[in-house]
Amino acid sequence: MTSNINKIGKKALELSNHDRALLIRQLLESLEEGKEEDKAGELWIEESKRRYNLYKQGKTTEKPVNQVIEDAKNNLK
Q1: What is the pLDDT of residue 31?
Q2: Looking at the 3D structure of the chain, how many domains does it have?
Q3: Quick one: pLDDT band at residue 40, thresholds 50, 70, 90?
Q4: Do 17 and 23 contact (CB within 8 A), yes or no?
Q5: For residue 56, what is the DSSP state?
Q6: pLDDT class of 20 with cuts at 50, 70, 90
Q7: Same domain, 20 and 46
Q8: Please, how many CA atoms are within 13 Å of residue 43, restricted to the half-sphere of its CB?
Q9: What range does the domain containing 67 cover?
Q10: Are 20 and 45 found together in one domain?
Q11: Same-domain check for residues 24 and 11
Q12: Mean per-residue pLDDT, 19-30
């Protein structure tokens, strides 16, 4: 594996500055994949806590799930 990395590294160093910068960007983006999904879960937890607090404070009301689904369907039309 290390010999492959060395070969790739030598080839990469032969690229122009611009192409090396593009390669670096692609590699960094590939390492960051999946972080958005992790963050989405955290954001949803924060949002659900915020909504629950609004409900407890009487600043919002509850709806039956069938009404929520019906409203969502109507909004998609």
Answers
A1: 84
A2: 2
A3: confident
A4: no
A5: H
A6: very high
A7: no
A8: 6
A9: 37-76
A10: no
A11: yes
A12: 91
Taking the C-alpha atoms of residue 55 and residue 12, their distance in angstroms, rounded to an integer, is 56
Q: Is the pLDDT of residue 34 over 70?
A: no
Do residues 43 and 63 both lie within one domain? Answer: yes
Q: What are phi and psi of 17, to 5 degrees?
A: -55, -40
60 with 51: CB under 8 angstroms?
Answer: yes
Which two tokens mark 42? 């955290």
Report CA-CA distances (Å) from 40 to 35, 37, 45. 9, 5, 9
SS3 of residue 60 by DSSP: coil
pLDDT in tens, 60-73: 888 889 999 999 99
CA distance 53 to 19: 51
Residue 7 predicted with pLDDT over 90:
yes
Q: Are residues 26 and 46 in the same domain?
A: no
